[in-house]
Structures are given as structure tokens and as C-alpha cells.
Amino acid sequence: MRLPEVLYRLYGKVLQKDIPAEKLPGHIGMVVDGNRRWAKLAGAPTAHGHQAGADNIVEFLGWCKELDIRTVTLYMLSTDNMSRSSDELDALMGIIANMLDRLAEQRDLCIQPMGAYDELPGSLSDKLHALGESSKDAAGLHVNIAIGYGGRREIVDAVKELLLDADASGQTLTDVARDLEIEDISRFLYTRGQPDPDLVIRTSGEQRLSGFLTWQSAYSEFYFCEALWPDFRKVDFLRALRDFTDRQRRFGS
Q1: In this structure, which of 29, 125, 136, 174 has its CB flanked by the most CB atoms within 10 Å?
Q2: Measured distance CA(56)–CA(36) in Å, rounded
Q3: Region of residue 42 (phi > 0: left; psi between -120 and 50: alpha; otherwise: beta)
Q4: Cβ–Cβ < 8 Å for 204, 228
Q5: What residues does 249 pair with on adjacent strands?
Q6: Mind listing the pLDDT tens digit for each residue in 128-179?
């Protein structure tokens, strides 16, 4: 083992001791950004960056389980990303499918897909649906997989479902408008029934959400990390958690 790796392990243990377990976030949103830049800097094909990013997702979920984090939402592919070249998307879809197979082997994970299924290849959409069904009763870490996801699209889908539900129950548009509350939208989101994210982390140095959990992140804490996603290490994660536990959350007050 190289000396830097030994030092990072020791540093990670010190960091973890400084983090009060009772203050850890229950739900973490993770924007896994920087795969393409990582590949470019390495002089490697873009697909290598996506594969390295997928490998790191598996590692990251392991860290979350070690720390007893209850819910994680992974922002893997946005609706805007669907406009990339067909060659890149085809390779990426294959990498995602392989990663899902790896996650399926972890019987303690509850996997919940979220996003626009109609924009994904049928084979990947079917795999996501099957994994969601087969793992829905798992008692361990709950993992929301956001693929083909857009925060505005989620809100539009929630409003559509709310209106259809109201129509089925015999309500008029006037009834809906008069009685509409914030909770009425929340109960039709992709994350319905789940707590909103306490902490949202984005890698690669970008300081924006890019439509990630637009509704749910209203009172989330944000942490932006310079590391590209494939280079995001456990010590980077622990730094984010230490920063979070040091904050005084006010929830808009």
C-alpha cells in the first residue's frame, strides 16, 4: 500500500470520529458530476469516465451503509443529458445497466427508479422497473436512481397526476384550486412518502443544482466539492458530512 493511501485511511478515521452520528443527514442527494472531464484529463475515451463513475457509485453506497444513512438520491442522468451523441448515450446506458446488475446483488438495497422512463431505451427501462419491484421490500439503504430525470418535469408530472386523481374522485378544477396545499403536490412527487434531502452534494466544482430535486431541496443544505466524481473519495464524503453537522439548520426561519 502506498504511503498516501495509508495517510488517507488514517485521516478518514480521524474525520469520522469528529462527526456526531446523531447529526448525520437522513437523506443525501448526490449529483455525480465530472465523469467526462475526468476521462478527458486522463486522455481516455468518455466511456472510461462513465465506467469509473459507476464504479465509484458502488463504493459510495457502501460508505453510506457503513454510516447508517437511510436514504440516498443519485442524480445520474438528466433529461438535458439525453441530447448527447447516440454513441455516448449507448455506451452510458450499457454501463448503467451493468451497474444496476451489481446493485441487484446487494439484497439489502431498496432501489427506486425516478425519471422519465419514456425517454430511456426499453431494455434499460424494463431493468429499472424490475429492480424496483424486486427490491421494494428490502430493509436497508433506500436508493433513488434518477435517470432521465428533470426537476421541472417531476413537478409537471406531479401536477398532472394530482389533477387526474382529483377528476377521478369527482372534484372540479375550482375545487382543486381552492383547496390546493403544498402537501398536495408533495404526495405526487417521485419521492412521495420520503423525507426531503437534508444534504445535497455536487462534485466537479460546479455550484448549481441543474434541476435536481427542485421541489424537495427547498431547505436542504448544499455542499460543493472540487473533486471530479470518479476521484471522489471517502475522505471527501466525510468532509462534507463534517461540514453538514457543524451547520445550524434554520429551515427558512
Answers
A1: 29
A2: 14
A3: alpha
A4: yes
A5: none
A6: 999 999 999 999 999 999 999 999 999 999 999 999 999 999 999 999 999 9
